[in-house]
Amino acid sequence: MGGPSLRNSFLAGVRCSSRILDPVSLLQMVGVSNSVFHEPRGDDRNRDIFPLPLIQQEGIPRGRVCRAVSQRLARRRAIGTMTNKTIHALNSLFFGESFSGDSPCVPSLGFLPLNQRLAIQDIMDNIKSLGARPAGASGPEALQALRAAVSSYSEPEIGVGEVVPMALQQLSLPDGVASGVELCGALDHSTKRVVEDFENTMLQDANVCTAISSDARKLQPYDDPSLKSRPKYLQFLRELSDRGILGISDGCRGRVGAFTVAKKSKLINGVSVPRQRLVLDCRQTNMMFRPSPHTQLGSLSSLCDLGIDEN
After folding, report:
1. Which range has the worst mean pLDDT, 44-58, 226-240, 254-268?
2. Where are the beta strands (DSSP E) in the chain?
3. Using one digit for the tens of pLDDT, what is the confidence trace for 160-218?
4. How many of the other CB atoms lie within 10 Å of CB of 95?
5. Residue 278, Cβ neighbours under 10 Å: how many?
6. Using the 8-state DSSP alphabet, how is residue 160 labeled?
7. In degrees rounded to 5, what are phi and psi of residue 251?
8. Backbone angles phi, psi at 17, to 5 degrees
9. CA 259 to CA 228: how far, in whole Å?
10. Rounded distance between C-alpha atoms, residue 213 and residue 254, angstroms
11. pLDDT in the model for residue 234
12. Could you read off the pLDDT of 215-243 as tens digits, one per residue?
């Protein structure tokens, strides 16, 4: 009896058997076993969706099938390739730096638990509905489209979030009249000490700063091209000082770049007024700080459930 027939008979025997086999046992019996997909061990009841396994790709025969069949198989293989790329991206997002990139391959979705089967099937359905990639599409264009968050209240305006030439009269900055929040008074003792004594608690040690100083000097922060003009630069500094967000120091420990991106327009007396958001390029000075401590952030569903009392 040939290989495929033997496999089909085996699966049919499993279906007809009085003993119901779970998908993990099936994977073990057909030779697929690793640290994630294996026979139950003790109290092993892990039913997590991740890591999602990859789908085994079937080859495209040449010269043995007609052209229509070959094209159909090529389309199926293209969908499988995009599915595996999506699965790899989702696994990387879920595990972060701990993801090694090695995922098992399964010959069919029927060998998987229901939760993984439905997840991968939904991925494949979305890839099919999207169709072929538009002509001229590229990765940078896709990332640029994802930069600006979409508001659920209104459609995003064209150009919002894009880098634009700086216009001081359009900067969205504090008016300098109202005083800011007194930060240290709102912090507990441990966090307050970090802010007040940041040079000893947040900055790198002296020997580390010496080692990275050469690398920091090579990193040139990005500035708006108009700030290369001394009159425009002095006008920019005067504007920040008048708004109460710029201080004066007699020592320089690093450079910070400044540029602007487009912001959603604001209606004032029925007139749409364009606005710009000021962005600071602090990559050079950030190298002087120690890595930030890890913290646990609430999920989006937790934030949606937050509420405050009246008044």
Report:
1. 44-58
2. 54-55, 105-106, 163-164, 257-268, 271-281
3. 788 899 999 999 988 866 666 778 888 888 788 888 888 888 888 877 877 777 777 77
4. 13
5. 20
6. T
7. -135, 145
8. -70, 150
9. 12
10. 10
11. 95
12. 777 788 999 999 999 999 999 999 999 88
Is the alpha carbon torsion for 170, 176, 177, 180 positive or negative? positive
Nearest Cα neighbor of 285 from 205, 213, 229, 177 is: 213
Count CB neighbours of 263 within 10 A.
19
User: Taking the complete model, does pTM exceed 0.70, yes or no?
Assistant: no
Contact 75, 114 (CB under 8 A): no
d(CA 227, CA 257): 10
What letter would DSSP give residue 152? S
Instruction: Using DSSP bridges, classify how beta strands 54-55 and 271-281 pair: parallel, antiparallel or unpaired.
Output: unpaired
β-strand pairing of 54-55 with 163-164? unpaired
Each residue of 297-306: pLDDT tens digit?
777 777 888 8
Q: Are strands 54-55 and 105-106 parallel, antiparallel or unpaired?
A: parallel
CA 134 to the chain's CA centroid: 23
Amino acid type, 126: N
Identity of the residue numbered 144: Q
Q: Which two tokens stand for residue 71?
A: 């094209």
